[in-house]
Amino acid sequence: MRYRTGLILMVVLICIVSIGAERREPVPQTSEVDLEAHGFQVMHTTAYVVGHHTANGSPVHSGGCACSIDHIGDIAILYTLNGHFLGYYECNDTGAEGGGVRAGRVIDVYRCNMTHATGWMKLTGGKVYVKWVEGVG
Predict the structure, then answer these.
(1) Cα separation of 55 and 73, whole Å?
(2) Cα distances (angstroms) measured from residue 7 to each of 1, 55, 113
């Protein structure tokens, strides 16, 4: 019983923190040319809200994302197409079998509820700039 209560409390706190993080002022706009010149690529993005554990066995959490298995353990730096910084996301999941996520065409970002998932899609328009940073440690 204590474990479930603690787990529920942790999920609620993560959702509260992510709400505050989403309301941050974005960094100044950056031109598309600048991002591409610094190793960013355009990818489709989606958001997911279900699941208990990721492909690497850790619990799903805000700040995590699903991507190609080639990037498990990496960090994805995301910007909107008009240059607004979205954040750093831990690549710890791979998405469904046979989908665009595993094929490396889509980055799927975890959101704690459907309202945040819908907000993600409105904010990004379904495409983002991504730069992969190799995870060390």
Answers:
(1) 11
(2) 10, 19, 16
- The yes-or-no verdict on residue 57 having pLDDT over 90 is no
Q: What pTM did the predictor assign? A: 0.72
Biggest CA pair distance of the chain? 53
Give DSSP secondary structure letters for 53-87.
B-TTSSBP-TTEEE--GGGTT-EEEEE-TTS-EEE
Q: What is the pLDDT of residue 24?
A: 46
Q: What is the pLDDT of residue 30?
A: 53
Distance CA 55, CA 1 (A): 26
Token pair for 107: 């980055």
pLDDT tens digits, one per residue of 111-129: 999 999 999 999 999 999 9
Distance CA 132, CA 40 (A): 8
Question: Residue 12 in 3-state DSSP?
Answer: helix
